[in-house]
Amino acid sequence: MNDRKKNWWRLSALFLLAVCFLSPSGLVYAGAVQLPATGQQGCWDAGGNVVSCTGTGQDGELRSGQAWPTPRFTAGVATVTDNLTGLVWSKNANLLSTRNPEFDQDGVVGDGMVDWANAVAYLSKLNQDEYLGYSDWRLSNIRELRSLVNYSLGSPASGLADEGFFNLPNGYYWSSTSAALALKQAWAAGVFFGDLTVKGKVNKYLYVWPVRAGLESVGLPETGQRTCWNREGLEISCSSAGYGQDGSVKAGEVWPTPRFLVSPQAVVDSLTNLMWTRNANAPGPAQCAAALSKSWEGALDYIECLNQNRYLGYEDWRLPNINELESLVSYEVNYQTNTSNLLSVAQWLMSGGGFIDVKSSPYWSSSSLASGPGFAWGSNMYAGYLQAYAKADQCYVWPVRDASSVLGDINGDKRVDLADAVLVMQVLTRTWNDGIVSNYPSSGSDLGGNGRIGMEDAIYVIQSAAEIR
User: Residue 98, Cβ neighbours under 10 Å: how many?
Assistant: First the structure.
């Protein structure tokens, strides 16, 4: 038997062995959005004292995400365009109070506060009137509304006033996004503080800020909401809900399918191109105080320990900033398989995202609260609330890094799976080498760091793809 036939039979045997352990991968989506930076530039210690950012691992040092353009906002006669997101906002941040005070219904004349249903109805009126010549005004979804927040400022609203907005009330604004775990409520954001919360659709009165889509610069991810509900929390057809609910508009970058690319110890979010540890409860070596909740400074120390120990072969792990942490939240209603039981964000991430040990509790971000830097921002992975916690509090820690490379990723699709296992076997048997990521030796995927694919790489790839590593 000649060498070519021997190699063919060897490859066939290895392929059959791999099939016994591996399941085919799904469709891979190559695109990703770069989340906007938070705007934070300063650094503070646990006591709220200003410190040098160098070596802290804080948001103010790393400034991860898409840098803001200069200028960030361009003010027109009656609108302000956000050059980062491309969204066009009403320059009057409480337009209802001056243009249509008859919609005001909370009993305080002229304050512009309405319940959620009337907020949606007010946007319909603006479209019927073709306000400023347009008929596509709407309530922003919760991610669009939160994108206005500058986390470097003690009062984000004051920064917006400097950019040309006016009539900014000190309170919460409605979004078009219903609360998945409490459908009689909807998400709201406070632009004076930057927090996210939910408010009852009935008998709660908030402000309304019209927005429309312009020329996109940085695409914000969709919220994931695909369903519409009325003020009583009953599901309704999005087509009959009228233009404006998040589940109807679905504004933002579409989620790829599959969104999460799962390896044994890490998960790459193909929407944001971020790599998260698969275990969401501070994994790593014992000397890093793994699997324990931590204070904020303890969380930063833990990340430093992971990098010193090259956890999973990397030394660029970081504590996520608040935008990165929030990007994991799905605002859609998700149910446990074959039941009517609602899933929390944490449960959804485990059942649908392949993560392990996600807590329905607060997680730390690296972003401090600029108005009270003894506090830092966190996200509660039960429903996705964003709020500030005292830095001495105990919260969970979830390491992240940019998914520029994945160890053992032979073909460059940001995961280690059957395709890599087959390719590495083909290389070893010298039957094929096409399809290897072009910069493999320098990409960070090369396990041995020797610029070639050898037996060490093959063992790692096959074990990883078979999830026995």
Answer: 11
Q: Which helix (H) or strand (E) holds 308?
A: helix 296-308
| 8 A C-beta contact, residue 38 and residue 322 | yes
Same domain, 290 and 352: yes
Q: Is residue 34 in some structural domain?
A: no
pLDDT tens readout for residues 1-16: 555 554 444 444 444 4
Reduce the secondary structure of 19-82 to three states and give it as a string: HHHCCCCCCCCCCCCCCECCCCCCCECCCCCECCCCCCCCHHHHCCCECCCCCCEEECCCEEEE
pTM of this structure: 0.83
Domain count across the chain: 3
Helix boundaries (H) for 156-224: 156-162
Mapped onto helix, strand or coil, the DSSP state of residue 3 is: helix
Q: How far is Cα of residue 108 from the mean position of the Cα atoms in its chain? A: 37
Cα–Cα dist 398/395, whole Å? 10
The predicted pLDDT at position 27 comes to: 36
Asked whether residue 239 carries a pLDDT value surpassing 90, the answer given is no
